[in-house]
Amino acid sequence: MKLHKYDLVDGNDKILSGATELPICVISASTPTDYTEITSAENWEIYGDKVIDYIFWRYEIQVLLTPIVNPNYPTIDFSGWSALTTSQKTIMAKHILAPKALRRTIFTAKEDLENWTNLLERTKGDRERLIEKMRKATSNMVLEETLSMADTQAFFRDVYLMIEYYINAADPIFKQWLTNEVGSAYENDGFAQKSYYSSTLKDELVLIYNGEK
Q1: Boundaries of every domain in the chain
Q2: For 20-38, how does the pLDDT look when each residue is reduced to its tens digit (9 = 90+)?
Q3: Which of 43, 81, 108, 139 meets the CB 3.0–4.6 Å disulfide criterion with 38?
Q4: Nearest C-alpha neighbor of 166 from the set 196, 124, 198
Q5: Does the pTM of the predicted model rise above 0.85?
Q6: Is the Cβ–Cβ distance between 44 and 88 less than 8 Å?
């Protein structure tokens, strides 16, 4: 994802008087008119909450900085830690993207625990909101009469435990089931094998799961 900021804002990130009302920041593959791309770990830290859930902009920080600290990837050794700026090190440590030995050079054990607690609370909250979006999207198909009430009830009975695992432990089995992920236990025994399956619903739910809707 690329992060873009609206050009015509004052120091308080308020759209200037007379300008068309637009979001301060957006994410898109290409740069929209009157926006400037500002993709960086530091800017995700500042503006991430304006455009997307925490779990997704934290991941974008990881995508940007992990290749620097692991120049021998796929070996994960953090041998490139010294190549990060001070602010980048702080960001990785704050969001528990670095091992304890490195985090504790920046934060005390107490601060590290506070950061961890914040991470747990925010990511769980984000996953709960994503599941609620999915519930509404599925229920809306009852309104449109493309799914029956019995279908949606069967759907939620089938995925209830998977959703609980996802919310409380970020377990990937719900997405594996939803997408019939190749190589998973659900490759040939997932959503596509259910009588209530539709590609429209699957695509909608995957977009929500990935933070794209």
Answers
A1: 3-107, 125-209
A2: 778 889 999 999 988 999 9
A3: 43
A4: 124
A5: yes
A6: no
